Amino acid sequence: MVAAAEIVPDSERRGFIGALPPRLRPFASLMRLDRPIGSWLLYWPCAWSVALAGVDGRWALFLWLGLGAFAMRSAGCVYNDIVDRELDRRVERTRLRPLASNRVSLRSAWILIAGLCLIGLIVLLQLDPVAAIVALVSIVPVAAYPFMKRITWWPQAWLGIVFSWGALVGWPAVTGALGWTTFLLWFGSIAWVVGYDTLYAIQDMEDDALVGVKSSARRLGDKAPLGVGIFYLIAVLLWGAAIWTVRPQWLALLALLPAALHLADQALRADPRDGELALRLFRSNRGCGLLVCLAMLVVGLTAH
Q1: Rounded to an integer, what distance in angstroms lies between the CA atom of residue 123 and that of residue 177?
Q2: Is 14 domain-assigned?
Q3: What is the span of the domain harbouring residue 275?
Q4: Is 96 inside any structural domain?
Q5: Is residue 71 included in any domain, yes or no?
Q6: Cβ pair 192, 163 in contact under 8 A
Q7: Nearest CA among 248, 54, 303 for reference residue 170
Q8: I need a labelling partner for 248 at 20 to 30 A (CA). Which of 82, 93, 98, 194 fits?
Q9: Is residue 207 part of a domain?
Q10: Cα–Cα distance, 49 to 172 (Å, whole number)
């Protein structure tokens, strides 16, 4: 019989999760509290949209949407682990996840999702009705996402739809309506997500091939860095188009230059044979998101 201590991943023995009471650690692990990068990446499109809309004095939206991004990303991780629990048992990197290793019951996982969705509901009540309705519609693509890697070589594109949804929420939260700017931001963010999640998928290519999971990294193979670069270029062009709808001046586009250089550096350094480097580049997108947010904020505050 395997001792309980032997089936606990290292991430639950150190850092923030390791400091929690033992009974809470599997739930914190389900929510990926040791990996906040996902919450940041979900949050940035929300913040870009609010910033480009000019904020209009609603600075608290940045905080409310941040809380919503944290709650919904955490709920999404739990839901993903519920759907993937059998598959996770067959992959070395994921076999010790709480549901895959039977350290958390299915019922407890669903209760945790309900609690996190309650936090999301509190955030929804702070939003303009149009923004709240748009946010609610995201439940459909979120529910479908875990199944995409079994269906298509491009589950990263579906993740892009989900993780970029905040771009459709932030603008109407300020203005009360959707517009072309919103959709340009959203499409640009989708391309950004496909790029950075292709980097993330590089580290799992061997395991994914063994269990039959599809990904853009497997589909692109040695051309993955080129693919990442192309998607990043599309993202920058669409972000630039969004800025142009708000402030049609070439000088305004220069606000995106730091983010564009950051993304170009990622694409040039990416190596499909180096999973550790790909993971570091993926994580660096937290900083890229901040650069884009600052660009949108500068343009939004000076154009409105």
Answers
A1: 18
A2: no
A3: 20-303
A4: yes
A5: yes
A6: no
A7: 54
A8: 194
A9: yes
A10: 9
